[in-house]
Amino acid sequence: MEQTYLQNREISWLRFNERVLEEAEAVEVPLLEKLKFISIFTSNLDEFFMIRVGSLHDLSRLKKTLKDPKTGWTTQEQIDAIVNILPPIYAKRDRIYQRVSQSLAERGIERCQMKKLDKEGKKAVRNFYERDILPLLSPQIIDPQHPFPFLENKKNYLFCEIERDGQELFGLVPLRKSFPRYLILPGVKFRYILLEDIVEAYLGEIFKDYNVLKKYRISITRNFDMTDNLDTKDEFEDYKEYMKLILKKRKRLSPVRLELNRRPSPAAEKFLLAKLELEKSHLFVCEAPLEMSYVYDLMEEIPSALRQELSYPEFRPFDPLAKYPSISEKVRREDVLLSYPYEDMNSFIRLLEEAVNDPDCLSIKITIYRLAKNSKIVKQLVRAAERGIEVTVFMELKARFDEESNIYYSNILYEAGCQIIYGFQEYKIHSKLLLITYRNKKGQLSYITQIGTGNYNENTAKLYTDFALITGREDFGLDARDFFRNMAIGKLDGKYKNLIQAPSSFKQKILSLLAREKNKGEDGYVFCKFNSLTDKDICQAISEVSQAGGQVRLIIRGITCLLPAVPGATERVEIHSIVGRFLEHSRVYSFGRENPEVYIASADLMTRNTERRVEIAVPIYDQEIKERLLNYLEIQWNDSLKGRRMSASGEYIQEDGDFSAQDVFLEKAEEERNQSLAPANTKALKEEKRRDKKSLLRRLVELMRELFALDPRD
Fold this sequence. Notes:
There is one protein chain. This protein is an alpha/beta fold and 714 residues long. The model is unreliable at 228-237 and 710-714 (pLDDT under 50).
């Protein structure tokens, strides 16, 4: 029986991505940021087709009919629903792109077309085309002697209908991914022209022996959701080499979408759909650029003053630990919570650097899912290994779209002497956990543990909201030590005092906490923030809390299969979503009104997280940090500018108001920075520094005694 309080995850995701696109219409968003949001929407949709639609296509080919457990839809019905909902969204994207482009042109940033260029512009384009593009073009006609070629995933092509001696053919020009995506034109204003506009203008010369009848820009999206083949894997002793094969095979998977910049003629449409083996419903026409990752490079070329005027105000994260001579000593005294991007990830990197330089540091263990380019964290791990510290890295090679980066970094770390352990075939290691182990001169062990909601990536830490708990609690360190030991021997059901791990205990813990709140009746209370909710068992448990009279408040950035405010099922469930300057990525789970249990976690409430990934959640014991997290949730809940309330039908509704949670956190970080720059003469800060200096002096004396073999009584 279909449960009316549940919705299909794909439809929910499309509504979320439409919310991303709508940020490009928001009055308060600067123009260049609007262009970014269109680009983000486009890349999100690309990935959606590669992974989600690709997976549905694979499932639709199975002999056994599979149905969505939330809606009862077959895989084909889900595909049909997706392609039916998309044309109006594509049309909205085109309208928004045109408005944003027009507004940018009025402010001096203009995308030009060939036919509107002045003499100087045409000369610059001609020189660019003949020097940088023409020598590397590989055009071809398509006929019995020249068969239809393989089209690469998300590569731009120019496709045209051509004619000679009464015979109509097709021509194809691939645009290499190594080509510059645009040319900056000469002149006072900032003007540019896209590569596809340039090459399209020269198609008559490229096919000079033919009459070019119609021109199109096309792009193919292929299925990237490649299920691992167990038999193939057995042929490889090295899991890393197996993953390289997977990446190669991805390039040739079947098409799931065809995009064109204009409606094709019946002949061109029939030809392309037949060659790509696609249904007409998978053909989409969009006037905006088919690929928009160039936006970020383009913005770097815009004059700084103009870019600053049309972008978000510059923000530098606040470093809350900058005032402490020793971060490790601070953490040994009390738990620390870092809140990215408002607080600086360099605080954590400095902690790692301190450990590398500490002669008492015995080992560093870390789980890695995604890393920044030129990762500072990798550099510190390499330094640690070179200094004789035991470094163990649990590297997940199946981090989607980061596989090659992780293979690259695993090679660097291995060459430096780190022990590299790859993730399990059936379970991705998605946890964010670091353990630093120290042994003092008396042989006593101590630990510093870091547990986060986001990746060890300095770049995304400036763009994603996440939390990182750093603690010197011995029981947390012992739990982390056991966790790493268990992972090394493939034990996924380890028992811990504090750590809660998926796939063994995370879901069970969440369900037990929901059951506890259900049993409280009207006193039941749940307040959580995460990215996605698809786990059917958890959806049902939340519904039961509501039916029992409890209140459930959920801040869900993206997908939610649970619908709120459904009579008789989720009447006391409210769902809000925030899409703003920063990507909401943190996961906080709170249960109960009076002295609630609060957890942070690496996991969302998706079946893939609860059952098919290695995840870590931890309770927050420090009362000050707990109150800080609860206050954070309250501020986000009241966001009336970037926040939206979800209706019982799954639509997003904007409330009246101009209160922005992200702006509040930005202002608070700025205030704290200003306070940190003021003369530090408070009694508390002086005492803090005195304790740090005393601790450092004590350790220095111990080192000197060891160096000169002095008796401790001297």
